[in-house]
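Do me a favour: review this protein, sequence plus structure tokens, and tell me how the chain folds. Record follows.
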Amino acid sequence: MKILLVRLRLIGDVVFTTPIIRALRRQYPEATLTYLVESAAAPVVRGNPHLDDVWAIEHRRGIGRVLDDVRLARRVRRARFDVVIDLHGGPRSAWLTWSTRAAVRVGYDVPGRTWMYTRVVAKPPDLAPRHSVLNQWDLLAVLEPHRFGTPTPDGDRVEMAVDPDARIAVAGRLAAMGVPADATLIVMHVSAGNPFRRWPPSSFADVAAALAGAAASRHVVVTSGPSDAVAASRVLAAARALVPDAAGRLHDGEGLSLSELRALCERAALFIGGDSGPLHVAATSDVPVVGLYGPTLPGRSAPWRPGSIPTASLDAGPLPCRPCAQRTCLPGDFRCLTGIEAGAVRQAAERLLDATR
């Protein structure tokens, strides 16, 4: 049997599909499993031991997208898949799923797209507090209900393989920064592709300064992504000004690839970041995570991994506008983010660091 999984965009969403990959391999050990993903998130599944192949496609616009999709439709049709599961539900993924002409095509019951599938399940509300892993697991249940029970973080956690080359690159970079091998390494990701998920830089700076200044063994690596490449340098400048004596232990990790970030988390004692792709990449490791949730809910997107791994999910508490669709801030002040106090994040970080000593 040949099975194709389709999940286009985004990094965190692709991470949340990895328990499904493991479950499919467990139930169909002889099947050929292929994953179709956009190139930005491809490192999440490339190297996954349960997959036979990963097809990475570009995210282009305009006529380039049309040409790409025509070529890709021919490719998926020629591959003769038996089962295709659309884990995304968007118009592009639905059309590509239909293009396979597979006998079994599973997807969400989305108006205007249902006809492209042979089996459909109700799509959960986007803002419901049900975890994304459970939402996507529904697609397995409609495939063969008797084979797939309810997943648990302990049984089917999110995963991402560590690239050996990335591990070597990270070790070299840490050495160049002057980070000792026995240092307590704290990774802080300070940007997000969505501005609605960006905690204030001044708050990140306060936390970075406090953690680095509390012990000489601590080194903080501040990372940021391509959506806000200078975020790390802004936070570092502010943090170093707050604790000049510890400035040499506050490091710029801007420019790390996704694979390198995963390798860095393998080495870290703590990860701090907002609800974005890097936090979910961190969750595929055993590093303790302090997650910051603004317009989103921890119940939907907290790390999906064993409860024995220390995790803290912080938010601003109940607000009439939260959760939201992240299109416009109705109050206009992003209170769901600014309401998360730096002091609370510092306390959570210290608690998790103490738990792993």
Q: What stands out?
A: The domain at 168-355 is CATH 3.40.50.2000 (Rossmann fold).
